[in-house]
User: Fold this.
Amino acid sequence: MLNQLAKRNFDITPFHVMELLRRAKLLEQQGRDIIHMEIGEPDFATPQAIVDAGLKQLQTGDIKYTAAAGLPELREKIAEYYRSRYGVTVDKARIFVTPGASGAFLLAFGATLNPGDELLMADPCYPCNSNFARLFEAKAVTIPVDSTTNYQLTFDLIKQHWSPSTKGVLIASPSNPTGTLIGREMLKECIETVDQLGGCFFSDEIYHGLVYGEYAPSALEFSDNAFVINSFSKYFGMTGWRIGWLIVPDDFVEGIEKLAQNIYISTPTLSQYAALAAFDEQNLNELEKRRTEFAARRDFLYDELIKLGFEIPVKPDGAFYIYADCGKFCDDSYRFALDLLENEGVAVTPGLDFGVNQPRRYVRFAYTTSIERMEVAVQRLRRFIS
Ligand SMILES: Cc1ncc(COP(=O)(O)O)c(C=O)c1O
Assistant:
């Protein structure tokens, strides 16, 4: 039957960390204590206000399809969030509630990418981006980035790599796996460059909210032509509810609506009702406390990893990741991750999951576990590398 698999299947890369997770689960079943620093989701439960809003709707039994673009009142709340947080006015007709940022990517790429189109993105980056492009027979052109540009693209890099086949550029700030931000001016210049070149600008803002220093601007502050991808997964603590949103330029509203109707009809209704509580002041205060906790974890882990001898040329400004160079200790970070798990019960994600730009030098630590647990992880790491 293998020959029945569509060609694109062979080009879609799996998550290498899954093999580690499988092994970690097995070790746990055998009674080993595993510290999970590989997981890209908050360890906090979904905030109670969101759960309560979901429960209330569940009890009515009224969980039917919604409009493909989402509940009007949720789209209005998202528009209001952009007014208060970023000072921008977004017509709610341009806002689509989606099954996570993943659903938003499918819509945005499905509406813009033709077979053979190229999409520029940084390497390292979130691995699904290039797989999504491949799904639409387009090609991700990954541009190696390093600490000199905060692991982000620049308008110079965009110009250098632009070809007649280039359809657009994707920027994720804060980035997964590096947690680094693109500067405000640079973001503006990248958007202007793509505009001048006649391309589409995609801005993955899923880690907005989880920023510990400077405020992360939205692409919408500079252009109404950007596609903005966001989600309730990370900052709002709703990974498993599968709900996010996409903001599109005016001209794309009709096309995107047709895609949403056909691909998934509507985003899970229960999750949409639950998310109505996400922007309430009390809930935002709760999320603020969590953000402060993440900031403390970032500072703790960053300092400890540096003391251990890892190289981290840019202190991450956001998300919950530290992308650390372990070249001092090994020449293969995948092996490093496997051995660290096997010998010391600490699970991390190898660089291989994030691209082809020196991946075997890096591992990603997720601080999605408490400082107490990370203290133990640091002791184990110390023993491991010595
Ligand atoms: C940068 C980035 N974009 C998008 C996603 C997809 O998130 P979701 O579909 O849960 O909203 C993730 C998940 O880890 C991510 O790290």
User: Anything to note?
Assistant: The pocket of pyridoxal-5'-phosphate is lined by residues 40, 100-102, 126, 172, 176, 204, 206, 231, 233, 239, 244 (CB under 6 Å). The CA atoms of residues 235 and 380 lie 29 Å apart. The two ends are 49 Å apart (CA to CA). The chain has two domains: 2-45+282-385, 48-280.
